[in-house]
Amino acid sequence: MSPKDYNKKVNEETSRTRISRLKNMKRVEMEYLDAVKKQMGYWNNQINATDPQEDEDRYNELKNNAENEKEHIKQVQDELNRINQEIERELNIRR
Length: 95
Description:
Layout (H helix, E strand, L loop, with lengths): L2 H47 L6 H39 L1
Helix pairs in contact: 1-2
């Protein structure tokens, strides 16, 4: 096997390994996003069950938690977009 052929084979294997790793990262991030969305649902249910006039501190705490989860969801979605872009780039390199 010539050095050129060997390098090509190694690069293809490296690319496959990288794509596989990225797909695993994507799967984990999707599962995490699902968990964060469920947590967001929990905070919203708690907000709906809390009377803001009777327990203003608890209500404000819940609203703050819900806002934090919204930001968290956006961060996870941004990470998923980044992973998707990397997968696309690897697939284009392989072609």
